[in-house]
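Let us work through a complete example step by step.
Step 1: write down the sequence.
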Amino acid sequence: MNINEYGFVRVAAASPKLKVADCDYNVSQIKNIIKDAVKQNVQFLCFPELAITAYSCGDLFFQSALQLKAMESLKELIVFMNDKPSIITIVGVPLVHNNRLYNVAAAISSKGLLGFAPKQEIPNYNEFYEKRWFESGKNLFDELVITPFGDYPISSSMIFETEYAKFGIEVCEDLWIASPPSSTLSGLGADIIFNLSASNEIVGKNNYRKSLILNQSGRCNSGYVYASAGVGESSTDLVFSGACFIAENGTLLAESTRFSLENELITTDIDVLALRNERIKKSNSISRSEKDSVHVFCDLQSPSSFSKMFRHFNPHPFVPDAEDAFEDIFNIQCYGLAKRLQHIGSDVITLGVSGGLDSTLALLVAIKTFDLLNIPRSNIHAITMPGFGTTDRTYQNALLLMEASGVTTKEISIVESVTQHLKDIDHDISKHDITFENSQARERTQILMDYGNKIGGMVLGTGNLSELALGWATYNGDHMSMYAVNAGVPKTLVSSLVRWIANKEADEATKEVLLDILDTPFSPELLPADGEGKIAQKTEHVVGPYELHDFFIYRMLRYGDAPSRIFFIAKQCFEKDYSSEEILKWLKVFYQRFFSQQFKRSCMPDSPKVGSINLSPRGDWRMPSDVLASVWLRDLEEIS
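Step 2: predict the structure and record it as C-alpha cells.
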C-alpha cells in the first residue's frame, strides 16, 4: 500500500524531552524521535520552537557559546538526516544573521538544509519578552544566511515543494494574530502549515489554542501540524505541556498527551488531494500575497510501502456525531416546508405513506411543520395505496403511524386501476418487468396529484438523495412532487434521523411503530411478496448497500475523488464488512447508474439542502444528461 499514490502524506508532530541550553541532550532526543518517525514512515516531522536549545534560555541567547553550539548541533542533525531520503524534519533553532538574532525553523532533508523560516510576530506582553532577544523576520523576503556549513535561503514567505505536498512554516505567535502568515502561505500554495511553538499553560488556554489551530486549518483549507515545547523547559514562572495537534480543514486528526515526561510523537495522514479539491472550488476566497515568495524544491522519496494508515475514515459521512445536528436537519426540512406553504397560501397537503422509511420521514416533517404553523394535523391528507407487492407489515405500519399522528387518513388500492391500465396497453400482468413496476409508481403519483387538486393542497415528495443519485425512482412517478422534503437527505441519514425522532420527539405509540419501520428491509414493494407474505423485492439486493453508495456519493461529490481513490479509501472503511470484490462491484454499479440517470435529476422538484452534498440542478450539481461514464469506469477497469 502506497498512500502517496492516492493523495495522502504522513505527517507527525513531536515534543521531545529537553534540558535548557543542553544542545547535546536535546539533539539526542530529537534523533531518537526521528528514528521512531522513520519506522512509522513519517514524511514530514515537526519539532517545537527553539527545540535545539530549548525556548526558555532567556539572556543566554545572547551568549556566543550557545549560538555557536546551536549551529554545531544543527549541522549534526543535517548529517544525521543524510541516509533518510523519505523524511523532512523541521526543527527550531536560534540563528544569527546580519548581526541580528532570529528565532527560526530549519527544514532538513537527506539532501541537507533546505532553508530557514523566521518567526514574524515577536510577542512582548505578559509573560513574553522575546523582543529582548529576537528580531522579527517579516522583512526577510529572499536572503541568504551564511553559516559555517553553507549558505541557505531565509524568507518570511517560503514555500517548500515536494512531489507529494507543498508546505509552509510559521512559528508560535504567528498563529495568534489577526492575519497569520499561514493565510498568505496557503494562498501561495502550501497544502500543509507547520507551526513550531513554545506555548505555556494557563487555565483554559489549551482549548483556546486548539480552537485557533482548527479554525486556521479551516480558513486556509490546509493541514495544520502544531508542535509545542514540553515540561523539560524551565519552570521559572512558566510551565509547558508539550501540546501537539494535527488538524485538517477544521477537523482534529491527532492530539498528544499533555504534561508527559517522555518524548511525545503523534502521527497521522493528511489528505492533500481533498484539500486541493476544496481550494479549487473556493479559489476566489483564498488570499494571495503580492510580495515576493521563495519556492524551495525538495527531494522526498516515497517509502516502499506503508503497512497501515494513520487516520480513520468515517464509513457513514452523512450521519452526524452531534445530537444537535439532527435537530438542525429536521428544522431545515420543516422550516423549508413552512416557507413554501406560506408562500403559496396553502394550509393543506397530501402525501403517500407506504410504511417505509422515506414516506415516514416526510410525514414526520409535515406533522412538525403543521404544528409549528398552528395548522390542524387533519389538514395533512396521508394516503396509503396498497398494490401487488404491499406486505401486511408495511401496510399495518402505515395505518398505525397515520392513526397515531392524528392526520386525515385515506386508503386507495391501486390493484384494480393498474390491472386495467396494463390491460389497456396490452401488457401481460404476469410479466413482472419494468413496465409492471413503473405503472404502479405512476398510478400512485397520479392519485396524489389529482387528490391534491381536489383538496387544494400540494403533493409532498418522499424520495431521498441516494435514490436520486442512483436513479432509483420512476420518472414522473415517485420522482415527481410539488416539494420534496427528503431530496437532500441520503438514505443512511434518513434512517438515523427517523431513529433520532423516535427517541427524542415521538410519543410511545408512534415510537413503537417507527422502530419497526426502521427494522423493515428497504423496498419499493412493486413486486409480489414471497410465499410467506414477506418482502421479496429488496432494494439493496438490486442496486447494492446504501451505506456503500452513500460513501461513494460523498467522496465523489464532496472531494471530487477518482474511482480508484474512492475504492482505496472504501477498503479502509469497510474491510470488515465487504470484500474488495464486493466494493468494486457496487462502485461500478454506482457510476453506471449515476451517469445514466442524470435526466431525472435535471427536472427534480424544489427541495431543501440540508448538508454539504445536494443534487439539485439549481444548486450544487450541474451535469449534462447525456455525458458518458467511460473515463470513470476505465479507471475501475484498471483496478480489476
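Step 3: interpret the result. The chain is about 40% helix and 15% strand.
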